[in-house]
Amino acid sequence: MIAVTVYTAHSCALCARALEIVREVRAEVGFELAVVEVDDDPVLEARYREHLPVVEIGGERAFTYFVDASALRDRVRAVLPAGPDESLAES
Predict the structure, then answer these.
(1) How far from 73 is each of 6, 29, 82, CA to CA, in Å?
(2) Number of folded domains in the chain?
(3) What is the C-alpha separation between 86 and 84, in angstroms, rounded?
């Protein structure tokens, strides 16, 4: 299963909205979700603060500041393994 990580911070309205969208898409598509708050980690704070929220798919940065539900859905589906029906499709 693909992993999606959302980097957030306390009192970040954009982060709250992005997380809401990610959770909605997760209910439809299905993926592992990790939420990481950067507030108490100086290394994460330095790496992500200026770009929050940051959404990574499979360890690669996919979104900053805003998350588009349709684009997230498409990007997650693009990295999911093909289902049994798709692998049996005729050429």
Answers:
(1) 15, 7, 15
(2) 1
(3) 6
Asked, for residue 91, whether it belongs to a domain, the answer is no
Distance CA 82, CA 21 (A): 24
- CA–CA separation, 39 vs 12, rounded Å? 11
Listed in sequence order, the DSSP H helices in 1-91 are: 13-29, 42-48, 69-79, 84-87
Amino acid letter, 18: A
The model's pTM is 0.86
In angstroms, rounded to a whole number, what is the distance separating the alpha carbons of residues 68 and 76?
A: 12
Cα–Cα nearest to 83, from 29, 3, 46: 29
Q: Tens of pLDDT along 34-88? A: 999 999 999 999 999 999 999 999 999 999 999 999 999 999 999 887 655 544 4
The residue range of the domain holding 76 is 3-83
